Amino acid sequence: MKSTTLLLRTAWLLAALIGLSPVFAQNHTLTGKVTDAFTNDPLPGVSVAIPSLGVGGFSDNEGKFTLSFQATTSSNLEVTASLSGYVKLTQTFTLSSGTQVLDFSLEPEAGYQADDVVITASKGFEQKQSDLTISIQVIKQKSIELQAVANMSRVINQIPGVDNQDGQINIRGSSGYAYGVGSRVMVTLDGLPLLTGDGGSVTLDLIPVDNIAQVEVLKGASSVLYGSGAMGGVINVISAEPGDKPRTSVRVRGGMFGPPSNRALDWDGNKNAYQASAHVFHSRKIGPLSLVAQTDFIRDSGYRLGGNSQQFRGLLFAKYRPKSIPGMAIGLNLSTQVDSSGQMLYWKGYYPDTLTSSTGQDSIVGGALTPTGDAGGFRRQLRTYVALDPSIKWLTPGGHIFWYRGRFLKNQSTNSTNQSSSNFILYNDLLYQTTLLKHISWISGATYTYSLANGDSLYGGQHPGRSVGVYTQFDAKYTRWNFNLGLRYESVKIDTLPNQAKPIFRLGVNYKIAEGTNIRVSAGQAFRVPTVAERFTNTAGGAIVVQPNPNIRSEYGYSAEIGLRQGYRFGNKKNHIEGYLDAAGFMMRYSDMVEFGISKVNFTSFPPEVLFSSINIADARITGLEVTTLNQATLGKWTIALSGGITWTDPVNLNSVPESNQLNLEQYQFPRQFLGALIDVMNPNLSDQPRLLKYRPKALVRTSTTIGYGPVSLTANYRYRSFIQNIDQYLFVVVGDLADFRARHSQGDHVVDLILSVDPTPNLTLSLNVDNATNTEYMLVPGFLAEQRKVGLQARWRF
After folding, report:
1. Of the four, 210, 212, 494, 772, which is 20 to 30 A from 732 by CA?
2. What's the whole-number mean pLDDT along residues 515-544?
């Protein structure tokens, strides 16, 4: 009896379990892609959720999302996709076993433009461009590919408000020209700095041009998140993630320089200078492993005498997502670059066949495209860069992000002037991100950097440096309001010099007045510690002698901005117009600004040597107005895009001397009136501190217009830089004919590039590029002519 009862109970239990088994929860995965219904472009940062289960996530840079959850197989579930500026879309599907796919195509809300999604302003999470409290410019992948370039220099040249003076990047007049050291603009690749450990100079050649998702340019003080070196802003290059399908591209390009507009400067006669390069790129996923590889070979015969170069660049990016730990990604990137080139400090003289050398030794042919014969004025150099970047990112099931990013960047330079040097920088950043009270994104982190610069003759030995920083930032969104509050404390020590530490703050507000109309106000502090090269360099180039000044003080300051942005979008999928107009007024204040300047004149040699150093020369105020726009129209098979901006600045030295006490060597004709210049230099009542800061144009214009019909497009890029009123006065003594050249080119520089692009097949793009189509003659920096007209061809195969 007992056994019969036990059997009956067991049978009833098994029947109950079998009957209930369909309602037991099982593991499921839902994947898909979110695109713009108008353009079919992927949409990153879209919130994809299953409200009934409390499950959600965000789409990545390719618009893809993955949701992992538990539910019964027979359930019917609603999935929502929402992004500010788009109509929320809800879809219903029935669960089945295995991984399921559900794509979304979101319609933009009528009456305004769909914004780009950016991450640089927060250092981690996606934000709408119009919601930001600070100006940011976005350059998309298509625009970069259209330029047909070997490195990022020309791309940066076309960004509104940005001036690139021979590798020294300047945003809204924040920087002048400091001979390649001490950048006030932080350039990063996926958030990792690309500044060297000795001079803080930018290594643009390490950027993989063929694998860029977009470039984000943050304008204004950004030291709260990015530390020293971000006084003027940040340029963050974001690399593209591999897609589900393998992607390969082969790109070959070649260009030929024509003669300069002044035919007397044509130093190579009928031997036209050229550039050529080959670029091979591949990316793919292998299960949980993502791989990106790229190799570049670049050769340049040099449009200036002796300026030939050869360059090799290679990279391998790897990212592993272990299935056993959902949300985790482990990355390791390796980059290397080798560059052999000739470097010219300044020309021998603008006018050919005249006595223009500062030593008066010889007559020359070739003029401004021929380097000076003075000792050190020209050098051959071999530079090598190696970067190793480990990273670990973990998105927990609760929505918290833990992210470690590191960079080891080593640079070694060997040159013909026996002033070789090497340096490395070890950068570590640990970041935590979460959401508080459903409306506040909170990011906090700590950064540790160690550097070592070694140059026995250049820097006088080894100089270690280290910095430790902690930061936190809150970004809150509530109804029409966006708030931003940040704080950083950083301690920096270089060699045996005293430790320097300072807290800095940032505050910003953005209010949406109406759909597509936003007003923003922000203010942020910044600081910059002078680099090893600024403190310890001891070298000579031509008649310029640089002396060390280890005791220069750090720069401190702040920037403030008020801006108004109006976006729009009209039409339907076949015919529509979209765009925005953004106007911003800004001000930057700097204390103890560091510039290169005359520290002493050595009269014991002939001709006298001009000795200069990095010195604290000014309390500075830079005010200005910037108007930028982006307009895109699709009319059937026709497409029209117009983008660009105008930037006006008033860069003022608040410690300037009166005009009557200002050193003015431009008035003398060197070397014929050398004695007059010498008397002025010796006069203790005269100094080189003009009211307008040096090397800053008061106006910059950048525009790009593209007209396309089907597979054919024509692009015209236009750049204007107004006349730079003030430069270092000693240059008028050591750089021949400089005063005459400036007098002949006092109206500023107008440069036009033309690009014709054709897609004969879906996998092939051909382009004809005419750089400096008007063959404009202009200087990058004093004594250094920019490139003349160049005609180039490029072919890109994708498969």
Report:
1. 772
2. 84
